């Protein structure tokens, strides 16, 4: 029995080896793709979220309604469906626009498509989290800043953003973990990130119980290091605040 | 109502109505009239709904012991429960689903006593794997929520029950669990919506839910956008119904917030 186990452990290591017959390089390339897309989508989502949150709170009536429609639709429809719709709509509309302006159609790299699609999804959720964060800023702080004659951009940069960071961080952290896991959905439209790479490796070698646990450890590694880092950032963001946990 | 119908909103509603009319009139909806596709669509919606309900119920039932083990269990129960929750919450559901379906699914035929068992006809189909994977996912996420809910029940309540001489299980059934569940109830609607949004993943393991049905219609008819629009509308309607249902449910549970 021990001999058998040693043998299978050895073959598992062979399968995960970095150079081909081993699939280690494929998995790590998939991991790199996943991380790049998650980072890109999160950054894009943060941009949309900041704009969306301020728009929802301080924008005109039409902007507020349009943002409400955007966040409601995105949060009510499955990511997988949004990915399909945006995937076809984004590339289709872009190509039609290019053709009508007299350019050739382009093939957009799947990484860019993935980032845009997941970024639009992230944007809706981040809008809500950031809006909550801004709402939790004591109104007196903002009024005081306005009373001092601060222009609204300066109020946002100097008062609202620093004060809301601590409130919004737990929600934003959750969304970051969601972003890393949502990259797996791109496997369904055939993009070679970590989940798809795992699928290909295990389908070829039939070693399901080598590759899936390995990939799960990689995902867990991402989420555990993220949690650790986020804990530090949160501590930093809460510096100077009284600890109310008692 | 007057508050809702501001002038700009009437304009927006008119624009939206115009968009919908344009979609109805100028897009290609002929496939909707075919009985073959109508049946498929209804079956797909039905499958999505029962997978949602079954996995939510099973997952919640599993979440109670998992939450309890983490909140009050000895270390040899608390640690496995915590590891389970971390793994479920830290890895994509799609990967868990594929591990079960492709991994276990390829392992089962080589084990004789499974192949001879009465369960084998079911294990050859895809839906048991989908139900197990989605239920475990609910159990993982809700187990964490239940842990907080169990811990959030005021200690005085439990002490009062204990001092009245209540046996431990009666205390759990009458005092601890109901109060913990009441704390979870407001989050449950949101969790059900997220679970609905996870159900299309089962289409990747050959289950013909509404997502897979529209995929098939798109392949058959070469129509790209219209089935996707229908799909989005179907999910939005189901989400709306879930939200309304839980709102009604919450209005019926008496709560006292300090």
Count of the domains of chain B: 1
CATH-level-2 architecture of chain B: Orthogonal Bundle
CATH superfamily of the domain at 39-192 in chain A: MetI-like
Distance between the termini of chain A: 54 Å
Tell me the β content of chain A. Answer: under 5%
Residues in β-strands, percent of chain B: under 5%
Provide structural commentary.
The complex is a heterodimer of chains A (246) and B (258). Chain A has nine helices and no strands. By secondary structure, chain A is mostly helical. Chain A has a domain at 39-192: MetI-like fold, CATH 1.10.3720. In chain A, α7 (152-182) packs antiparallel against α9. Chain B has helices spanning 7-26, 35-72, 75-90, 93-107, 112-116, 120-123, 127-152, 155-163, 168-198, 210-221, 225-252. In chain B, 79% of the residues lie in helices and 0% in strands. The longest helix of chain B has 38 residues, at 35-72. Chain B has one domain: MetI-like fold. The model of chain B has no long low-confidence stretch (mean pLDDT 89).
